[in-house]
TrEMBL record:
This is Guard-cell-enriched GDSL Lipase 2. The keyword Ubl conjugation does not apply. The keyword Signal applies. Gene3D superfamilies: SGNH hydrolase. InterPro entries: GDSL, SGNH_hydro_sf, SGNH_plant_lipase-like. It comes from Hibiscus trionum (Flower of an hour). Keywords: Glycoprotein, Hydrolase, Signal. Belongs to the 'GDSL' lipolytic enzyme family. One of its GO terms (molecular function) is hydrolase activity, acting on ester bonds.
Length: 379
């Protein structure tokens, strides 16, 4: 493939707060128009734009809930394989960078109509950071999902690379001009562990292993030529209706969240940020932007009105119990064919994933971080 536009990424830590306002208010922003020529993303259902559907189709398995309305109702007005009423954070990122929504990587080779030079999405709903044989053998966690791990996603990327670029130097140039979005990943490893009653000490032992998976993947991609990474941390899992339903208990009175679970997310984020700092020191020429999902979304629970939210810990598409969540009823499968009247006043779409409204705030915060670190100078 040819890389038509090019830009230099300069590492400059400028105060560009006004740029954020520009993005939010006008939709025009300096990251668009050739700053990054492509985006490649990895992760789980928070980022999947069709891989689980493609995998289910190829294996003649039951289609995932994301294949059915009301998923997609707000923005696309049809199901688009996203577990959301509309756009995901990765969709808002693509829009801000002026590139099309990312296509699913699975089967992309065979879909001649797909133009994937501008990016591909390797995220698979249900993916874990660690592989399922390790989770089962070493921790006793049964992965009830697809069994796809982060290593599988990275391998798919390496398999597809020859379709994206033709020589080692061509690939390096492609990756140099690409934004790599690493996750979030690990959320399912922890969620399975908590839901399956694994003790806290064992679950905490998973954290450095998960962080190491992310870190090794960054090192590998740097070898291949990537220079700009966006690495999301864990969101506050103690505010998530699914885990709140599972662990009904003494919630924090001001946020409605479970503090002990949120502390776990913070523990993960602390180790992840330490590791990212190590990587920055080890590779002084690369940009690693930490996407602070935790602090950004905590603001929804502390001051919901500021963001237009009325319900923070209740699912919009769900039923039953104080959090409108029941793990045996997934949004999209009967009987959950309807959802709340106004999804934009809810933080949680289906009890596990955010609404488009929440994703939009999250994406804006992430883009603001990206702009602080990365400046593009066309030449
Ligand atoms: C699973 O992960 C472990 C630890 O990261 C690794 O040693 C093992 O080779 C992996 N197994 C498979 C089948 O990928
Ligand atoms: C994010 O939240 C944590 C925990 O509340 C806090 O320790 C940290 O200072 C916050 N970071 C930022 C950048 O706001
Ligand atoms: C959850 O849904 C299942 C299946 O529809 C139902 O049998 C069960 O009673 C529900 N549980 C709760 C707590 O509402």
């Amino acid at each position: 493939m040819a890389i038509s536009s090019s830009c230099w990424l300069l590492k400059q830590r400028l105060v560009v707060g006004f740029l954020f306002v520009v993005v939010v208010e006008t939709g025009i922003n300096p990251l668009a128009n050739g700053c990054f020529t492509s985006v490649f993303s990895f992760g789980d259902s928070l980022t999947d734009t069709g891989n689980l559907l493609e995998i289910s189709l190829s294996e003649s398995k039951k289609l995932p809930p994301s294949a059915f309305l009301p998923n997609g109702r707000t923005f696309f007005h049809r199901p688009t394989w996203r577990r959301c009423d509309g756009r995901l954070v990765i969709d808002f990122i693509a829009e801000a960078l002026g590139i099309p929504f990312l296509q699913a990587s699975f089967g992309a080779k065979n879909r001649k109509s797909v133009k994937f030079e501008k990016g591909l999405n390797f995220a698979v709903a249900g993916a874990t950071a660690l592989n399922s044989s390790f989770l089962k053998g070493n921790i006793g966690i049964h992965d009830r999902n697809t069994g796809v791990s982060f290593a599988d996603e990275l391998n798919s990327f390496k398999d597809l690379l020859p379709y994206l670029c033709s020589s080692s130097s061509d690939c390096k140039l492609l990756l140099r001009n690409s934004l790599i979005v690493m996750g979030e990943i690990g959320g399912n490893d922890y969620k399975h562990a908590f839901e399956q009653g694994i003790n806290m000490e064992k679950i905490r032992h998973l954290v450095p292993l998960v962080v190491d998976i992310v870190s090794s993947a960054i090192n590998e991609l740097v070898e291949l030529g990537a220079v700009t990474f966006l690495v999301p941390g864990s969101f506050p899992i103690g505010c998530s209706p699914d885990l709140l339903t599972n662990f009904q208990g003494s919630n924090n009175p001001s946020t409605g969240c479970l503090t002990w679970l949120n502390q776990f997310s913070q523990h993960h984020n602390g180790l992840l940020q330490k590791e990212l700092e190590k990587l920055r020191n080890h590779h002084p020429d690369i940009n690693i932007v930490y996407a602070d999902y935790y602090n950004t979304t905590m603001r929804f629970y502390h001051s919901p009105k500021q963001f237009g939210f009325k319900e923070t810990v209740k699912a919009c598409c769900g039923s039953g119990g104080p959090y409108s969540y029941n793990s045996s009823r997934s949004c999209g499968y009967p009987p959950l064919k309807t959802s709340c009247n106004n999804p934009s006043s809810y933080v949680s779409w289906d009890g596990i994933h955010y609404t488009e409204a929440a994703n939009k705030w999250l994406a804006n915060a992430v883009l603001q971080e990206l702009m602080k670190t990365v400046t593009c100078v066309p030449h």
